[in-house]
Design a protein that fits this description.
- The complex is a heterodimer of chains A (250) and B (253).
- With 250 residues, chain A is of the alpha/beta class.
- Chain A has one domain: Rossmann fold (3-Layer(aba) Sandwich), CATH 3.40.50.
- In chain A, helix 4 packs across helix 6 and helix 6 packs parallel to helix 7.
- By secondary structure, chain B is of the alpha/beta class.
- A six-stranded parallel beta sheet of chain B has the order 1-3-5-7-9-11, with no helix packed on it. Chain B has a six-stranded parallel beta sheet with strand order 2-4-6-8-10-12, covered by helices on one side.
- Classes of the chains: A alpha/beta (250), B alpha/beta (253).
- Chains A and B meet through helix 2, strand 7 and helix 3 of A and helix 1 and helix 2 of B.
- The complex binds adenosine-5'-diphosphate and magnesium ion.
Chain lengths: 250, 253
C-alpha cells in the first residue's frame, strides 16, 4: 500500500531523512520506534507534504500513485491521514465546521456526493461516541482549550469521520493516561483494522502496542530504518533498550 | 486659489493614512445626521462593494450620530471596494447610551479602506464598543482611526476599541490610531491593536485534513473577521456582510 524507497529529505539545508526505505502492506499495522530526534515526526511531515520539508531524493508510492507529486490536500483526498504529535489550535473555527468542510472537500475531489448537515452530524456523533468525546467538544473551536489528552482523542475522532485508507499516527499515545490510552488504542483498532487499510504507528511506548497489536515493528535511527521485525522487537526494545538491540547485526 | 487648497491633507490627524489625492471633486460637506431617541435602538448595516463591476473611485460615508438617554445605536459595515473607501462616524452619547460598531476592511491593489470614528462620551454611564478587522493584500491598506473623548463629568464610562489586521501578502499594510482624551476619573477604557499573518501551521493542519489552500484561507479569514460581527444579532445581515467580504477575497486574490 505504501512503499518508501531510499528517501532523503532536509529542513533548512540539514539532512534529516537519510536513505529511508519502508514497505507497509494493506491490512498491516506497522509500528515505528526510535530515539528522540531520529526523524520520526519528519517522516510523517514529509509523507504529508509539509512546506519546508524538502525531499532531495528517493520515492514514495502510495496505492500505486507517486505520493510526492501530490499537494498536501490531494494526499488527504487520496486516503492519507496524519495524526499530529502536536495538534494545531484554530481559533474561530469549530470542529464541526472544519471537519464537515474537510470531509466534503475530500469527497468532492473523489467525485462523491457531499454529506448534508444532518448526515454529517450523525456521523460525527457516532465517531465522538467511539472515542468517548463529548459532542459539545466538537462544537467548540478546533483544539482550542483542549487538554493534551482531549486533543489526541479529537484527532482520532477526526480520523473516524474522514475514514482514511492509511493513517500515519505520530505519538498519538503521548499525553494520555492509562484509561485514555486504552480508549484511543481501541479507537484505532475500530477505525483502521481492515484488510484494505493500514497504519504507520509512531510511538515510544509498548503500552500502546499492547492495545493496537502491530504486525511489524521498525526502528528508525538517524534518518533511516535500521531494523524491522515482528511484535517481539518492540518488547525487546522495552526490555533491553535501543542501543543493545541496534548494536547486533541486522 | 485652487479648490484643492481647502481639501484635507495627510497632516490632518484624521487623514493621516488616507489617500487625500482621491478627494478631488468629492463633496466633503455631505454629513448625514442620525438621531436616536431616548430608549430607542437603531441598527444600520452598510456595505461598500463594487458597483456595476466598478471598484474604483472614492466612496465616502459620513455620519453624525446623536444617541439619546438609554438609547442604542449599532453600526456594522464592510468596506470592500473603491480606490478610497472611508466610513467616518461622529457619535455623541447621552447618559446610559450605547454605541456598538463592527467594521471590516478588505482588499488589495493600491487602495485605502478605513474607518474613522470620534466618540464623545458626553454624559455618565454610557458605553461604547468598536471592533475593526482588516484583511489586505497587494498594496491594499486598511486603517482604523478611533478617537474617544470622555468629558469631565462622564463618570462610569466604559469604552472599548479593538483592532486587528491580517496581511495576506507583502506590500499590504494596516494602521491603527487609537486616541483617548479622558477628563473624568472613574472610567474604563480598553484598546488593543495587533497585526499578523496567516497561521501557516494551521494551514498545513487543514491541508492534511483535505482543505485546499483556497478553502483553508477562506475559513481562517472568516474566523478572523467574524469578531467584527459577533454583536450583529441578525442572521441574514450577518451572512450578507460576511459574504461580501469573503467574495472579495475569492474573486480578487
Ligand atoms: N523545523 C526544524 N528545523 C530544523 N531542524 C529540525 C526541525 N524539525 C526537526 N528538526 C531536527 O530534525 C531531527 C529529527 O526531528 P524529528 O523528526 O522531530 O524527530 P523525532 O520525531 O524522531 O523525535 C532532529 O535533529 C531535529 O532537531
Ligand atoms: Mg516526534
Amino acid at each position: 500500500m505504501l512503499k518508501i524507497e531510499n528517501l532523503t529529505a532536509e529542513i533548512d539545508g540539514k539532512t534529516i531523512l537519510n536513505g529511508l526505505s519502508l514497505k507497509v502492506a494493506a491490512g498491516e499495522v506497522h509500528a515505528i520506534m526510535g530515539p528522540n530526534g531520529a526523524g520520526k515526526s519528519t517522516l510523517s511531515y514529509v509523507l504529508g507534504g509539509r512546506p519546508g520539508y524538502e525531499v532531495t531524493g528517493g520515492s514514495v508510492t502510495f496505492r500505486g500513485q507517486d505520493l510526492l507529486g501530490l499537494e498536501p490536500h490531494e494526499r488527504a483526498a487520496a486516503g492519507l491521514f496524519l495524526g499530529f504529535q502536536y495538534p494545531v489550535e484554530i481559533p474561530g473555527v469549530s470542529n464541526v465546521q472544519f471537519l464537515r468542510e474537510a470531509l466534503n472537500a475530500q469527497r468532492k475531489a473523489r467525485g462523491e456526493e457531499a454529506l448534508s448537515g444532518g448526515e454529517f452530524l450523525r456521523l460525527a456523533k457516532d465517531k465522538a461516541g467511539l472515542l468517548g468525546l463529548d459532542m459539545d467538544m466538537l462544537k467548540r473551536n478546533v483544539n482550542v482549550g483542549f487538554s493534551g489528552g482531549e486533543k489526541k482523542r479529537a484527532e482520532m475522532v477526526q480520523m473516524g469521520i474522514l475514514d482514511p485508507a492509511f493513517a500515519v499516527l505520530d505519538e498519538t499515545d503521548s499525553g494520555l493516561d492509562i484509561d485514555a490510552l486504552r480508549v484511543v488504542g481501541e479507537g484505532i483498532n475500530a477505525i483502521m483494522r481492515a484488510p484494505d487499510k493500514a497504519v504507520l504507528l509512531i510511538t515510544h511506548y509498548q503500552r500502546l502496542l499492547d492495545v493496537v497489536k502491530p504486525d511489524r515493528v521498525s526502528i528508525l535511527s538517524k534518518g533511516r530504518i535500521v531494523k524491522t521485525g515482528g511484535p517481539e522487537l518492540a518488547l525487546r526494545l522495552e526490555n533491553e533498550g535501543y542501543d543493545a538491540v541496534m548494536a547486533e547485526p541486522a | 486659489m485652487s479648490e484643492a487648497a481647502i481639501l484635507p491633507t495627510r497632516r490632518d490627524e484624521a487623514w493621516r493614512y488616507s489617500d487625500t489625492d482621491a478627494l478631488a471633486g468629492v463633496d466633503l460637506g455631505n454629513w448625514r445626521a442620525v438621531d436616536v431617541a431616548p430608549g430607542e435602538t437603531v441598527r444600520e448595516t452598510l456595505v461598500i462593494e463594487d458597483e456595476n463591476g466598478n471598484a474604483d473611485g472614492t466612496r465616502l460615508t459620513r455620519l453624525r450620530v446623536s444617541i439619546g438617554k438609554g438609547a442604542r445605536y449599532e453600526l456594522f459595515g464592510v468596506i470592500a471596494s473603491a480606490h478610497l473607501g472611508r466610513v467616518e462616524v461622529e457619535v455623541t452619547l447621552a447618559e446610559g447610551a450605547h454605541f456598538e460598531m463592527g467594521g471590516i476592511t478588505v482588499g488589495g491593489r493600491d487602495t485605502v479602506r478605513e474607518f474613522v470614528t470620534r466618540v464623545v462620551h458626553a454624559q455618565p454611564h454610557a458605553t461604547s464598543n468598536q471592533v475593526v478587522r482588516s484583511v489586505h493584500w497587494g498594496q491594499g491598506t486598511g486603517n482604523f482611526l478611533g478617537n474617544i473623548e470622555v468629558v469631565r463629568h462622564a463618570q462610569k464610562t466604559d469604552a472599548a476599541q479593538s483592532f486587528k489586521g491580517l496581511l495576506l501578502e507583502k506590500g499590504a499594510s494596516v494602521n491603527a490610531v487609537p486616541q483617548l482624551e479622558i477628563f473624568a476619573d472613574d472610567v474604563k477604557c480598553a484598546h488593543g491593536a495587533s497585526v499578523g499573518q496567516m497561521d501557516e501551521n494551521a494551514r498545513f493542519y487543514m491541508a492534511a485534513r483535505g482543505l485546499s489552500p483556497e478553502l483553508s484561507r477562506r475559513l481562517l479569514v472568516q474566523a478572523f473577521i467574524g469578531d467584527a460581527l459577533v454583536a450583529l444579532d441578525d442572521e441574514g445581515e450577518h451572512e450578507r456582510l460576511l459574504q461580501v467580504a469573503l467574495d472579495k477575497l475569492d474573486k480578487h486574490l
